[in-house]
Design brief:
The chain is built from three helices and four strands; from the N terminus they run ββαβαβα. It is of the alpha/beta class.
Length: 103
């Protein structure tokens, strides 16, 4: 398993881009907590989460994305997912979360 938060940068002052990768499951809970902390630190921004290098997106990770999205919205920001695989997009859609996908 690779570390979930593989890259974090701000392409412009209003956007925070987080690249996640590897297997996002209960075994990566500590790394997912670090992801949530990064979202909290930048909650007033537009946060884009890149899932291109994600191999496994578990219920634990989906729950983390929803909580992070709620935290961002409560602070006046937003969180969106991009570059999700077809399978992960379908999984998010089945969970009623297709609104979180930016592309």
């Amino acid at each position: 398993m690779s570390a979930p938060v593989t890259n974090f940068h701000e392409p412009d002052p209003s956007i925070v881009l987080l690249h996640l990768g590897g297997e996002l499951d209960l075994a990566s809970a500590v790394e997912l907590e670090a992801f949530e902390a990064a979202v909290r630190d930048h909650a007033k921004s537009r946060i884009v989460v890149d899932l291109e290098k994600v191999d496994l997106l578990s219920a634990c990770a989906i729950h983390t994305l929803v909580r992070a999205s709620q935290q961002a919205a409560a602070a006046g920001g937003c969180l969106q997912v991009r570059a999700a695989s077809t399978f992960h997009r379908r999984l998010l859609s089945v969970c009623g979360l297709d609104w979180i996908c930016a592309d």
